[in-house]
Amino acid sequence: MPYVRKVTACDRCRRLKRRCDRVRPTCSKCRQAGVPCSFSETGTSSRSSGRSSSSPSSPTTAFDLTSLESWAETALQTPIIDPSTNEVAACKLVSTTNQGKSREIRRRNRVRFSCTRCHRMKVKCDKKSPCTRCRNSGFASGCSYMHKSNGEDGSVEGEVASPEPESFSAIFQAYNTRHRGSSHWRVLMHRVKELTSWDFNLFVESLRPDHAVCTFELTVPINYPFGSQEAIKFHSLKAVMELLSKTSSSAETYVDNYFRIFEALHPVFDVDSPGHDVVPFDASTPPSSIGELVQLAQYLVVLGLGCSATLGTQSHSANYYLAAEACLMKTPFMFRPTLATVRTLCLMVMAKRVANATCWAIDASWSLAGLMLRLAVMLGLHHEPTELPESETMTWADWHARRKLWTTIVYLDVEIAMVTGMPALLRRDEVHSAISSLSYSYGQDGPVTHFHDPLYDALPIIMEIATQVNATTDQLTYEQAVQYNATVRQLMIPALNAATGFRQTTLDIFFRRVLLVLHRKFAHHASSPFDYPISYWSSLECSLALLVHQRGMWEGNDGGLAEVSRVFMLDFISAAMTTCIHVLREDAPLSALAVEAADGAIPPRQTILETLRACVEIWGRQQDKSPCIKTGFLVFGVIVEEIPEISSP
Asked: What is the pTM of this model?
């Protein structure tokens, strides 16, 4: 029989959970309260008789008596409230009385940010969709997140499953059914397929293992800089300031490397004019206005690009890009843009192309460049300003900065349009305006006619070439191609002479790419060496020049140039395919039989093959950095093996 502890306290002290001194016949607590104690003779005999017999001996037990007495005591001590005069007090009294009857059970309702599997295993989750742990473990399809929200009925939403990843066939079909102009490299791939015994299915199979990586394993999200889930951690400015404080010692180095490499690639800042340079931010002073927030976003992208050039990797620069996105999203940039907003988007286009060296990312850059261009048009950068009020007179430095930024925007638009095979978003008359026709001078610093940029003069004709090459009607004729060739080469000389260093290299790549696209239609014709000789030899010259630039970037001592060469990934791929087409043709002057018959008159064939092999080796060294570069390495490895060698004498 279980042990039952003996009750020694009186009923009232036991019920009120007070210490009882057990003084008989009335304890001190009951005596002070003036109520009968259960230790009295009547209460004790009643409780004893009730415990000794199985049936009740009296109609009223001691427990009922003490309960009635305690209720009477509580009623006497409670003030009388008239509900008609004090309704609030009456409600409070009722609530206090019923509190002991029904006690609400409160539960914690924390927001769970980890996926279901990582939360169950109690491991850190990177909150991607799917997360890296689930993807590496083979549970990508089951990676899902729980979102809790308190409804009116206190219910909690259930698990929301992530959508199933797209199949390889759906991704491949979506990529190939997109609109592509003649300037895209896909035209070259079909031409290579015709000249070799290589099965095109090999290209498809080479894509299969890494097709999901093109959209998942990226330095920045594919839709950057809009709605990136990874940027949530920088939603608070405190997190952004902490990021700046961690890299305060390296910030100056990052900024210097940005201006050394990326500013030469696409000039965004007018460093010669005061007030248009990058504004460094103190980590202890958060931005206090919308303008400072935009400048902070601009500064963060500069740090990210400079970090990639300094360390030679993109993994450390991702946080800067995401923090810049979080800052930009806090500003009304869609309907109230500023020059700093447009500069920030220009920098983000560059960051997207450098960080994600994939075909999908470059296609996405064309969409982002369209938004950047439209915001620039909203600011009126595409035409010269009219007369301004005297109180708002534009200085010569302001005009110079606007013109330089607009030149870079058009340059980016044409460059990305030719690489992706998409149409340019501007017409020729929207690009160029006669500077000499302006009679208004900006301030007293100097007349507008002093400004001269050879690249700005060349952009209208290059935009016209890009439009005609990718057009489905009004096809380009050979006579027009020859005329455009002479014009571009004439404009190319002063533009290259005005630039120095890496800027000169990037401009040469740009002009060579334009000439390569211009002559592609005629250079790949069956009788091009005889009917279209200018196009044939110009195409070969420009493709070899691009491959030489690729080798120069990788074989130099500057690791930052090797990293930025990923921007020109599709340019180098197109140049390599064009070169392969030239040496694969059996009836061309560069064929193995023609070179042997010429008896040394055409010696560069072996040099061309060595250049191609060197480029394939370069792609092999960086195949782990991009799935598209890996695919190019596999494809060109097969193509180069099929190119016949020249028999030794």
From this structure: 0.69
